[in-house]
Amino acid sequence: MPEGLLCNKTPVDTMEQLQALLNDRRGVTYYEEMDQLDVDQKALATAIQNTCKSRLRTWLEICAHCGLCADACPYYLVNDKDPKQVPAHKIQSTLGEIVKRKGDVDNAFMQYVMDTAWSRCTCCNRCGMYCPFGIDMGIMFGYVRGLCFAQGFVPWELKIGSGMHRIFRAQMDVTQEDWIETCKWMEEEQEDDWPGLKIPIDVENADLLYTVNAREVKHYPEDLAEAAILFHIAGENWTVASEGWEATSLSMFAGDWAACKMQVETVYESFKRLKPKRMITTECGHMYRATVLEGPYWAGFESGQPPVECIHYVEWVGEALRTGKLKIDPARKIKEPVTYQDSCNYIRNGGLGDVAREIISYVAEDFREMSPCREHNFCCGGGGGLNGIGRYRPQRNKGLEIKRDQILATGAKIVVAPCHNCWDAIRDLEEVFHIDISWSFLKPLLLSMVEVPEHLKPEED
Amino acid sequence: MYQFLTGPLLWLSFLIFFIGLIVRVVWYVRGLSWQMDRVAYTKHVSHGIKGALRSIIFWLLPFGTRRWKTRPAMTILFFVFHIGIVITPIFLLAHNIILKERWGISWATLPGPVADTLTIAVIVSALFLVLRRIAFSEVRILTSAYDYLLLAITVAPFFTGFLASLKVAGYPFWLYAHIISGEIMLIAIPLTKLSHTVLFFMSRGQLGMDYGIKRGGMKGRGLAW
Predict the structure, then answer these.
(1) In chain A, which residues have their Cβ closer than 8 Å to the Cβ of B30?
(2) Are A136 and A185 in the same domain?
(3) B39 pLDDT band (50/70/90 cuts)?
(4) Which of A87, A96, A387, A395 could form a disulfide with A127 if both were Cys (CB 3.0 to 4.6 A apart)?
(5) For B70-106, what is each residue's pLDDT tens digit?
(6) Do A349 and B215 touch (CB under 8 A)?
């Protein structure tokens, strides 16, 4: 059969489409329809012809089949070294076949490609660091996801996710009104404890424009309050945007490049409107990847740079601690052993490993590195959208084992995870395995130990 | 026969080898796209060059990268194999004598025992490369007959050349086999994945530029390969 009502090649652009998908609990009908979905082989062949150029083709062709990428992949290691999990095999048996057959593939094959692209690879890019040729299969699977999305072979949650970006310009159904209301609510909540604290909306020429993840607004708005308090203590001249306030991109995980462009352009538009000196993201890895690293290319900027200098939250924290804008009370530093979850998206792929360590040196007395760490760290197990996909929950949970063992080996009791995906994965890890650890973003940790200047304290009655 | 093999056929082989490799490099560079690869290649040249050089140099050094350090046996095998393949034919005394006779040029040459050792090392390491293809499941799943064929094409000139140099019985046969297999290798390099002779540098350089320009190269100390 041709296109299904829910599972089809048309991206979600209307509330009706979105609601229909959301009403289909767990995507049961969606995946049933997927079994019938036709592959548009001609379109696939054309896409390959137009977009699979020398970099990707060379990677496919020169792979020496040496197998050195095998143990770079957490899924290979955690699945008893199953040869089917060797990155080179995964990419050769998917993209390699599509190219070889010039798009002449069927439904069953495309479902294999989809399952591989989303449940056997989190696009962590670690394999690229272990291949002598520098064949980065994370990048290749990112590309494969785009091919799959265009053909309608995309996990239910990510079809919804990219639809959210298309409709709300946010990864969840949070409207501009919801957002502004949350800012005001959080501001009011702090009135007693933090007199004078503001969450300034749409202030032009601010030093910092803060962008968030819709998840925070919808599920843990206290994160926004914590950010505001820390900016308040640091005396920052900051603002948020009423529009373009959300800088994540589930569309990047979905391979919906058109939605990626829409989303990031909305954020860049707010830069133009508000002219901030710098933009700062919240503690999110893929947000940084999407809006700061990849976004300029989606938006068509030849410079590869966002229109305004953008920094990750950890960069701001590092700077604030270094310059004394935030002062830590040494007596309140964490005494228990602490480890740090290096997010693939801003450590391996963003070069921020040093500043993460710098922060830890201010806040923890007993820091223990995971092994391997920094750029070589393993994915938390939930990257690339995998956390949110019900169809692949067993594969996701299996993948968490490698992180569990890494954490256990450090003996740490607290895992600092300044990335939403990592944070979620480690929370789930504790739920699944009960290894008696806690996990935290930086904001609550900093608030528990920062020295508050006298003039900011509420007056005693 | 000898005149033909070392005359027109050799010229043809070298022609295909050099032109083929040039075409490979040109095709690769022309196929790069800042927008599709999402790397601003031409806008941040110094970061790009730095990233590319780091990516190439660390991987050219034995034990220069974490991969090479965590797989010492493979690293030794890999470097012995490749160094032998590149150094031996270029600096072999016999090849230099031919060059001297034909064109009146020659350069530094390897002492006989060194050349012999390198040749044997290439053959032995190729044997180990075959064994690991059979023994290790993660390599076996990737391996096809084509991989063995390419290994055979690569090692044949060394095997035949070594026998010819020993002047064993049937010397003319081994000599001809050596020349022909050498020419097959020269032709195969640009036409097969042996083109990694040059594409290694392209691919490594590209990923280095990706990291150098986009993925943290401007903020961090450069990726710790």
Answers:
(1) 54
(2) no
(3) very high
(4) A87
(5) 999 999 999 999 999 999 999 999 999 999 999 899 8
(6) yes
- Tell me the per-residue pLDDT of A220-245, one tens digit each, with 9 for 90 and over: 999 999 999 999 999 999 999 999 99
Kindly state whether residues A183 and A262 are assigned to the same domain: yes
Question: Which phi and psi (to 5°) does residue A197 adopt?
Answer: -70, 135
Sorted by sequence, the CB contacts under 8 Å of residue B132 that are 6+ apart come out as A67, B74, B77, B139
Is residue B82 within 8 angstroms of chain A, CB to CB?
Answer: no
Domain's final residue, options A248, A282, A311: A311
pLDDT given for residue B120 in this prediction: 97
Indicate the residue of A296, A297, A351 with minimum beta-carbon distance to B217: A351
pLDDT above 90 for A459: no
Please answer yes or no on whether B218 and A351 come within 8 Å at the CB atom. yes
Contact B223 A351 (CB under 8 A): yes
Listed residue (A116, A212, A106, A210) closest to A155, CA to CA? A116
Q: Domain for residue A318, yes or no?
A: no
Report phi then psi at A414, rounded to 5. Answer: -125, 130
Instruction: Select from B185, B200, B195 the least CA-distant residue to B22.
Output: B195
Average pLDDT over residues B197-222: 95
Distances (CA, A) of A48 to A112, B19, B28, B103, B105: 18, 27, 16, 48, 48
Amino acid at B43: K
C-beta separation of A278 from A310 below 8 A = yes
Whether A404 is covered by a domain: the verdict is: yes
Interface confidence, given as ipTM, is 0.95
Are the beta carbons of B150 and B192 closer than 8 angstroms? Answer: yes
**A183 plus A295 within the same structural domain:** yes
**A306 lies in a domain?**
yes
Q: Which of A390, A146, A347, A114 is nearest to A251 (CA)?
A: A146
For chain B, say whether A61 makes contact (Cβ under 8 Å).
yes
CATH number of residue A336's parent domain? 3.40.50
User: Percent of chain A beyond pLDDT 90?
Assistant: 98
What integer pLDDT is reported at residue B3 of this predicted model?
87
Contact A351 B221 (CB under 8 A): yes
Nearest residue in A to B205, CA atom = A134
Please tell me which residue, A108 or B170, carries the higher pLDDT value: A108
- Note whether A302 contacts B40, CB cutoff 8 Å: yes
- Residue B156 corresponds to which tokens in the numbers above? 């044949």
CA distance to A32, A122, A172, B202, B208, per residue, from A27 (Å): 8, 21, 17, 44, 41
Confidence grade of residue A389 (pLDDT, cut at 50, 70, 90): very high
Length reported for chain B: 225
Contact flag A297-B28 (C-beta cutoff 8 Å): no
Greatest alpha-carbon pair distance for chain A in Å reads: 78
The domain tally of chain A equals 3
Among residues A246, A276, A311, the one where a domain terminates is A311
CATH number, residue A55: 1.10.1060
pLDDT in tens, B129-145: 999 999 999 999 999 99
Count the neighbouring beta carbons within 10 Å of the beta carbon of residue A141.
29
Q: Domain check: are A233 and A305 in the same one?
A: yes
Domain that holds residue A331: 327-449
Within 10 angstroms of residue A107's Cβ, the number of other Cβ atoms is 16
> Where do the domains of chain B lie, and which CATH numbers do they carry?
2-29+41-213 (1.20.950)
Q: Pick A354's closest partner by Cβ from B44, B208, B220.
A: B220
Residue A454 within a domain: no
Average of per-residue pLDDT values in chain B = 96
- In terms of domains, do A58 and A109 share one? yes
